[in-house]
Amino acid sequence: MIRRLVVLPPVPALLPRYASLEDPVAELRVSAVAAVQAITRGVEAVSVVGDDPFAPEVARALLDAAGFTGRVEDGAEVLLVMANGSAKRGEKAPGHLDERALDFDDTVDLALRSGDGSRLAALDPQLGAELWASGIEPLVDLGEQLGDGWRVSVPYADAPYGVLWWVAAWLH
Questions:
Q1: Which residues partner with 157 through β-bridges?
Q2: pLDDT number for residue 17
Q3: Averaged over 16-20, what is the pLDDT?
Q4: What is the mean pLDDT of residues 152-159?
Q5: What are phi and psi of 99, to 5 degrees?
Q6: What is the DSSP pairing of strand 45-49 with strand 4-8?
Q7: Residue 26's Cα: distance from chain center in Å?
Q8: Are residues 36 and 6 in contact, defined by beta-carbon separation less than 8 angstroms?
Q9: Looking at residue 157, what is its pLDDT?
Q10: Per-residue pLDDT, 20
Q11: pLDDT tens figures, 133-142
Q12: Which residues does residue 142 pair with via DSSP β-bridges, in sequence order?
């Protein structure tokens, strides 16, 4: 049974090998590491879910930065869900502008802030794929298992490079 989860973006800029003298995602990094520290406190194992190719590596880097010394294994009660919003929020976004992107991201944002699994389950993974969002299908699958009554904290939600990123913690 899932007891805690945190949604984090699978952003390659969070990997140590992409670190530079000036951190381009400093605010995101601080928020993500703090959320991972909080959610893994006293935990021996976590699961990582996500469909982005960078998801496992970014999750591991965040776990390491948070000082987590436990195991990453399927079926743990604590999840790191690697997902981000659309990458088509404007002309300078990676996928350029798609008029549907802002409404889609608003829907995902509302679902993440709701504490209601049925809202996650109602997300449209096909539209997410068209808008270059990642992790939407895993969020839908997860939503089908979660139910409602979750306490939610969203310490970070921003799109500094045209892709909406969240750090959202769900606690039961």
A1: 166
A2: 86
A3: 83
A4: 97
A5: -60, -20
A6: unpaired
A7: 16
A8: yes
A9: 98
A10: 79
A11: 999 999 999 9
A12: none
Per-residue pLDDT tens over the stretch 49-97: 999 999 999 999 999 999 999 999 999 999 999 999 999 998 888 998 9
The residue count for the chain: 172
The 3-class secondary structure across the chain, one letter per residue, is CCCEEEEECCCHHHCHHHCCCCCCCHHHHHHHHHHHHHHHCCCCEEEEECCCCCHHHHHHHHHHHCCCCCEECCCCCEEEEECECCCCCCCCCCCCCCCCHHHHHHHHHHHHHHCCHHHHHCCCHHHHHHCCCECHHHHHHHHHHHCCCCEEEEEEEECCCCCCEEEEEEEC
* Whole-structure pTM value: 0.95
Please give the single-letter amino acid code of residue 118.
Answer: S
Bridge-based pairing of strands 151-158 and 165-171 is antiparallel
Contact 121, 144 (CB under 8 A): yes
- Among 131, 130, 122, residue whose Cα is nearest residue 102: 131
